[in-house]
Amino acid sequence: MVDLDLPKEQEVCLWIYDEMRYGLQPLSRKMWCLRGVRAVAPSKRRFQNGYLYGSLEVGGSSAEFLFTFQRTKQWDLCFL
Q: What tens digit of pLDDT does each residue of 12-33 get?
């Protein structure tokens, strides 16, 4: 346990921070075909990532979020 040595009369807000990556999943299609014939369903495969930064105030009602298409140190510092 670490003692932060904060003044007892000063109010402190505690925030939790996290980031996540998400993206589009490849599509799988089902289709009807003749028995014994393997069906091939063409689909456009594409993939795009996104990053979501979020923080919530513990015991409060505040929240902050940031969406970006890349995760870099500059975005981390910008959000913090």
A: 888 999 988 887 766 666 778 8
- For 61, the token pair is 């009602």
pTM (two decimals) = 0.58
Rounded to whole angstroms, the Cα distance separating 51 from 68 reads 5
Q: Are 32 and 41 in contact (CB under 8 A)?
A: no
Q: Evaluate whether residue 29 is within a structural domain.
A: no
Q: Does residue 10 lie within any of the structural domains?
A: no
On whether residue 1 sits in a domain, the answer given is: no
Around 12, how many Cα atoms within 13 Å sit in the side-chain half-sphere?
A: 8
Q: Which two tokens stand for residue 54?
A: 């979020």
